[in-house]
Write a structure and sequence with these properties.
Shape of chain A: elongated
Largest interface: A-B, 13 and 13 residues
Distance between the termini of chain A: 17 Å
Number of domains of chain B: 2
Largest sheet of chain B: 5 strands, mixed, barrel
Oligomer: heterodimer
Number of helices of chain B: 5
Order of helices and strands of chain A: HHHH
Largest sheet of chain A: none
Number of strands of chain A: 0
Number of helices of chain A: 4
Helix content of chain B: 25-40%
Strand content of chain B: 15-25%
Order of helices and strands of chain B: HHEHEEEEHEH
Chain lengths: 113, 245
């Protein structure tokens, strides 16, 4: 597993980038629709729409590096699906990143942390 | 990918693994997932088309000029070329703009001041007449006319210094002594009759611009379809790994 550190790092970067964007969008959504009445007004900025589109592509990159990492460490199908879905749940991609590093460390698959 | 090791057992053939109950169940799940993603992509694709169609029909529909103009007599460039309705009356003010050809024939443009109900004034190009023809008087009753909205003509700086030769809201305002809405309306409707002094309609020189493309929905459609193909790749890779075991 000579290329594992690279795969771990790529996944960590995408987990944090998609996690931060999705987290920010979630907070924004709650504030926008809960307090600023986005549903019935024109207050919704273009940036908000474009961040959602950007999150779609970021999530695709997250899927690719996530599947790559899961294949490398031969994670089970169920766990792999959990890692991939974590990218769609706010703040769960950080948990997935932590769990994957722990998994790699406990099994001695490669250097971590 | 490593080449298959021929010394291993026959289950390394991926298709044979694919026919095991576990992988048949996985295949069923894959088909459901891919079908759902394709349908979701179609939904966003249809939304893209619907939004485009709605924007195009909105841009093509006639609208009251008064609804487009702000308090300063300005309007949005996106409305260039729109068909506008005008409710109001022609006033006494009229200009003949020289050096206007129609079908290669020299002549003038008849530009009238039109007072909208509500008080604003706009320049209406009634049409073209050959030189040496006086325009017939226009209706003095309150009328509802339709035309195409054009921006001010900007040929060159100071064109209207000595007399008005191009349509420019500031020059017309000076000539007519009152504020004039930016641009002008090229009158549509009946064709006119030059012999009787009724100006011949001039075809609009502008048309409605492209409506903004709903890129976001388009991207969502693409993303769903990429996810669908991604699911197939992941299935195939898992199957291959399992078959190698």
């Amino acid at each position: 597993m000579e290329k594992l550190p690279g795969a771990l790092m790529r996944f960590r970067v995408m987990a944090y980038v998609t996690g931060v964007v999705l987290g920010a969008l979630t907070v924004w959504l709650v504030i926008g629709y809960g307090f600023l009445d986005y549903a019935n007004t024109d207050l919704k900025p273009d940036l908000y729409r474009w961040l959602w589109t950007a999150h779609g592509w970021l999530y695709l990159a997250y899927l690719i590096v996530g599947v790559d990492l899961c294949f490398r460490i031969k994670l089970s199908v169920i766990r792999t699906l959990a890692v991939l879905l974590a990218g769609t749940v706010p703040f769960m991609s950080f948990v997935a990143d932590y769990q994957l590093h722990k998994y790699v460390r406990i099994r001695g698959l490669g250097p971590s942390e | 990918m490593t080449p298959p090791n021929t010394s291993e057992r026959g289950s390394e053939q991926p298709w044979r693994t694919a026919l095991t109950p576990r992988w048949l169940a996985a295949l069923l799940a894959l088909i459901v997932l891919v079908a759902a993603f394709i349908v979701l992509g179609r939904w966003q694709w249809d939304r893209t088309q619907d939004i485009l169609a709605a924007e195009r029909s909105a841009a093509a529909a006639p609208i009251d000029l008064a609804d487009l103009v702000d308090d300063q007599g300005s309007w949005n460039n996106a409305d260039i070329g729109r068909t506008v309705n005008l409710q109001g009356t022609f006033t006494d003010d009229e200009l003949l703009l020289a050096n206007r050809e129609l079908d290669g024939q020299a002549g003038v443009w008849v530009v009238s001041s039109f007072e909208l109900d509500g008080g604003k004034t706009v320049a209406v190009v009634r049409g073209w007449l050959p030189d040496d023809t006086s325009p017939a008087p226009r209706s003095r009753e309150s009328v509802n006319i339709q035309g195409v909205l054009h921006p001010d003509e900007e040929f060159y700086e100071g064109a209207n210094a000595t007399r008005v030769v191009t349509i420019d809201a500031d020059a017309l305002a000076d000539a007519w002594g009152e504020d004039v809405i930016d641009g002008y309306v090229m009158l549509g409707g009946d064709q006119g009759d030059a012999a009787r002094g009724i100006p011949v309609l001039v075809p609009p020189t502008v048309q409605v611009g492209n409506v903004p493309f709903p890129l976001q929905n388009f991207f969502y459609a693409i993303q769903w379809w990429v996810f669908a193909s991604f699911a197939v790749v992941v299935y195939a890779r898992w199957l291959y790994l399992d078959a190698k075991k």
